[in-house]
Amino acid sequence: MKIKIEKILISDPIDVSAVDILREHNIHCDLKTGLSSDELINIIKNYDALIVRSGTQVTKKVIEAGENLKLIGRAGVGVDNIDCQAATSAGIIVIK
């Protein structure tokens, strides 16, 4: 299965080289760290994918607000900060 990702939100600090790699592939990336849950809920509808580490809690409310969300990527170990059941129910792929 192939999905089209055009716009990614990175909500936790990651190495700038990762952002550079995505941009080299013509993928629009916004690095916005320190967002509150409400701020994330308000902007997630504008993105196809979300990349997090351990700081961002990807709750059912975040997932439901992600009208265009197709993918949640966890840069690190485990997915305990992602509601995987809500993501799966919404047809969103979770990768780590």
UniProtKB/TrEMBL annotation:
Start and end residues of each D-isomer specific 2-hydroxyacid dehydrogenase catalytic domain: 8-95
Keywords: NAD, Oxidoreductase
Cross-referenced SUPFAM superfamilies: Formate/glycerate dehydrogenase catalytic domain-like (SSF52283)
Gene Ontology MF terms: NAD binding; oxidoreductase activity, acting on the CH-OH group of donors, NAD or NADP as acceptor
Protein's UniProt keywords contain Oxidoreductase: yes
Protein origin, superkingdom: Eukaryota
Short name of any one Pfam family annotated for the protein: 2-Hacid_dh
Family affiliation: Belongs to the D-isomer specific 2-hydroxyacid dehydrogenase family.
Descriptive protein name: D-isomer specific 2-hydroxyacid dehydrogenase catalytic domain-containing protein
Organism this protein belongs to: Euroglyphus maynei (Mayne's house dust mite)
